[in-house]
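User: Could you check the structure of this?
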Amino acid sequence: MTAVLVLILSAPASASSSVASDARGDIATTAPAYLDIVHTKATLQVGRDVFLFQTVNAAPVPAAPAGFRAWNWLIDLPGGVPIEYALTVRFCSHLIQRTCVGDAWHWESSMTNMMTGAQVSNAFAFEVDQESVKAWVPRAFIQSPTGFMWVAATRDSPAAGNTPPVDLVPDDPSTSELIFGS
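Assistant: Sure, the predicted structure tokens are below.
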């Protein structure tokens, strides 16, 4: 009985994961290294019914970066449009991006439903710690999928403009996306 209990308590805390690495230094030399993705993952946390999205960057993210900065996880559910949800952790100001909450520069999360255009600010918990940016997103927020395709991105300007992302994983999402689950 004791052996079974120990086995249960030491079981992994994730049901499913999708992990990818990316080459260090594959961004424009003018962009800060903390926007260079070197590792990214999506994990469904058992017992919490929450996805953990994490991006690890080539350098520590400053507590207050110079200007707009964003880390995205773009979710592509089976069928439908190419990207259904954009999950974002960003350092922003309403003066630069109208959907940011407040004029002062600050960190916030947001979730955009790409089918309707609806956006919710401070939608989920997040953490920016050294090289790591994490987002904890309730599974129900993205229609409780068992499987989806996804892309990680970093930006130094709002997505509403014509400026492309600083880094993408995979590098060319038009030919392949990361796969989570079934």
